[in-house]
């Protein structure tokens, strides 16, 4: 059901024929570069890649670890090199060498963490090359038995940024307009989709991959599965969008920017508009369910259901056996690279 559009049925012994290449072309869209639709997209090219790299190593890295989880500030404090790395405008080795040159006693907390992420990039791509079936199915076969019922209504609300949870909706709308989100917010979007809305991770893949300017299958698929809690080897994290909103967008700047219908509300209501009484709504000239949706799910109930099912599955014999297999196949003695969290 979740098969990708392009079926990977090629093998090295057979080679790919001209006819098959012609067939593939129909899946690609021709982009009109002269009339860009998205004014916020990062511009392409090696020269621009180096501009981003230079400004990052000169100054922007100074608050890298302080801001990495914050949806608004991370946009400036992170390198923003991912599209250039993914499209080959700049190589990991070039960025790695530049980071080593700039690393000092004073900035080692920030550039050290940055360098780890460059290693993760290579680690995940290698892992995907060794086990490409994870494009369609959970790498841990124990989780392939997990059946979730599809809700097209939930999926549409999530894709359009109309779930009634402001940080989730702001993230999706921002991603649609700019092609970029920081790590934690990407992880939270996937966690919300797979845990709170209880949808299969495969159903989030195509939408996100179309939006990410830096789409890299080697990072994308492992991250989807990790944040869906279906690898068996990573910590199960069910992100709470309200907690994240209060901690990482304290004054609601990010939400206000991307959800203009909430921009005029006081900060507590920006995070949780559904807490407004009818009188609050009247004073604020705002109608819940009309100006902005009511939450589409009862979050506490949904989190508990996801948590109970997934923690229980972790104890399953096949899940455990598969976890051991994954660790044996993809890691050396050092397991740090798998503990991939911000
Ligand atoms: C669900 C999900 C999907 C993702 N899909 C992609 C994707 O398609 N392409 C992509 O490049 N990144 C992806 N990431 C990882 C990460 O979010 C982005 O690499 C990062 O946000 C890009 O911003 P930056 O260049 O400013 O990163 P920085 O923090 O400045 O990091 C520098 C570089 O390190 C690499 N990197 C950073 N974080 C990670 C990570 N967690 N795992 C592996 N490599 C990392 C990237 O190449 C990045 O450009 C995904 C994360 C999640 C949770």
The radius of gyration is 21 Å
Number of helices: 18
State which percent range the strand residues make up. Answer: under 5%
Let me know the average pLDDT: 92
* Distance linking N and C termini: 33 Å
Query: How would you sum up the major sheet?
Result: none
Overall structural class, as computed from helix and strand content, comes to mainly alpha
Low-pLDDT stretches are none
Hetero compounds: flavin-adenine dinucleotide
Helicity range? 40-55%
Count the strands? 0
Shape: globular
Give the H and E element order.
Answer: HHHHHHHHHHHHHHHHHH
Walk me through this protein's architecture.
There is one protein chain. The chain is mainly α and 342 residues long. The protein is 53% helix and 0% strand. The chain has a domain at 46-132. The longest helix has 23 residues, at 108-130. It starts with 17 loop residues before the first helix and ends in a 12-residue tail after the last helix. The model has no long low-confidence stretch (mean pLDDT 92). Residues 78-82, 85-86, 114, 117-118, 120-121, 124, 182-183, 186-187, 190, 212, 214-216, 219-220, 223-224, 227, 340 line the site of flavin-adenine dinucleotide. Flavin-adenine dinucleotide binds at residues 78-82, 85-86, 114, 117-118, 120-121, 124, 182-183, 186-187, 190, 212, 214-216, 219-220, 223-224, 227, 340.
In short:
The protein is mainly alpha-helical.
């Amino acid at each position: 059901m979740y098969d990708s559009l392009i079926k990977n049925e090629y093998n090295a012994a057979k080679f790919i024929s001209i006819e098959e290449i012609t067939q593939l072309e129909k899946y690609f869209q021709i982009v009109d570069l002269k009339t860009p639709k998205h004014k916020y997209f990062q511009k392409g090219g090696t020269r621009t890649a180096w501009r981003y790299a230079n400004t990052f190593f000169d100054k922007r890295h100074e608050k890298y670890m302080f801001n990495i989880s914050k949806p608004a500030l991370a946009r400036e404090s992170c390198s923003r090199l991912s599209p250039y790395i993914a499209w080959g405008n700049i190589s990991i080795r070039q960025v790695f060498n530049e980071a080593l040159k700039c690393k000092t006693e004073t900035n080692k907390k920030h550039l050290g963490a940055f360098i780890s992420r460059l290693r993760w990039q290579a680690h995940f791509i290698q892992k995907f090359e060794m086990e490409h079936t994870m494009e369609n199915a959970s790498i841990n076969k124990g989780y392939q038995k997990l059946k979730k019922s599809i809700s097209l209504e939930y999926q549409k609300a999530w894709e359009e940024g109309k779930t009634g949870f402001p940080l989730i909706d702001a993230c999706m709308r921002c991603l649609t307009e700019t092609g970029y989100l920081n790590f934690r917010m990407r992880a939270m979007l996937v966690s919300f989709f797979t845990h709170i809305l209880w949808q299969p991770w495969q159903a989030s893949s195509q939408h996100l991959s179309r939006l990410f300017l830096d789409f890299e299958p080697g990072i994308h698929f492992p991250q989807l599965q990790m944040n869906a809690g279906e690898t068996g080897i990573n910590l199960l994290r069910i992100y709470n969008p309200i907690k994240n909103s209060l901690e990482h967008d304290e004054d609601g700047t990010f939400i206000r920017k991307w959800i203009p219908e909430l921009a005029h509300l006081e900060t507590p209501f920006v995070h949780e508009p559904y807490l407004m009484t009818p009188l609050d709504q009247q004073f604020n000239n705002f109608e819940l369910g009309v100006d902005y949706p009511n939450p589409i799910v009862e979050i506490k109930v949904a989190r508990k259901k996801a948590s109970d099912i997934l923690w229980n599955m972790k104890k399953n014999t096949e899940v455990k056996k598969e976890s051991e297999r994954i660790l044996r196949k993809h890691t050396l003695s050092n397991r740090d690279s798998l503990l991939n969290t911000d």
